[in-house]
Amino acid sequence: MKTAVNVVGILLVGVGLGLAIRQLRGSLVEVKGPGPDEVVFTNDGGAEANALTSGEVENPTPVKPPEDANWLSEFELTERSGETVSSGDLLGQPYVVSFFYSTCPSICVQQNQTLQTLQETFADRGVRFVAISVDPETDTPAVLREYAARFGADEEQWLFLTGDLNYIRRVGGEIFQQPVNKQFHTERFVLVDPQGEIEGFYTWTEKRQLQALEESIEQMLD
After folding, report:
1. Which three-class secondary structure state does DSSP give residue 43?
2. Which CATH number is 201's domain given?
3. What global pTM score does this model have?
4. Is residue 182 a part of any domain in this protein?
5. Which structural domain range is residue 80 located in?
6. Would you give the end-to-end CA distance of the chain in angstroms?
7. In the chain, where do the E strands start and end?
8. What's the total number of domains in the chain?
9. What are the pLDDT digits (tens) for 125-172?
């Protein structure tokens, strides 16, 4: 009798594991975004970074990039004005980095509406906002000029940048520690201090984190 019970138990465990594996495989198939060979760098595994959740999201802690000559530490991209903007041009004042694309019908619009509010909050206070396109083939400077106008983006305070997609992947991963790909990005704002160092990551969909971002900016301005 014990042998029969043990056999049944083993069979049930096996079925349970099989279902779990099948569910896991199904969830993996549904995940969209960069493949394992397309994300240059992420300090938290990256997969959950694109998750849309209603609960509190825990952000990673910024890490020191490796000291490697092949690892990007500075960038140059093209602004909507057609001018080249470099990371060196942004030194001396805090700035907030975000990733987006102009044809995104929903989440990017909400994200940029949030940035519009932040722009108004910190108007004329020496804070800049840097929005980097993850669909640069579509988002030419001309397209970005029209798109930026929708949000009343001040040309001096709020920059819209574009460039080569492979290069933008590296800028996102190696400099700002965010996995990005064509039409794929996280919902995190990256706050950079006046010395060009990442202060932290903030999920803009979370009210408490957005408030924490504003408080961190205020501290940099004091």
Report:
1. coil
2. 3.40.30.10
3. 0.75
4. yes
5. 47-221
6. 76
7. 76-79, 84-86, 95-100, 128-133, 158-162, 188-192, 198-203
8. 1
9. 999 999 999 999 999 999 999 999 999 999 999 999 999 999 999 999
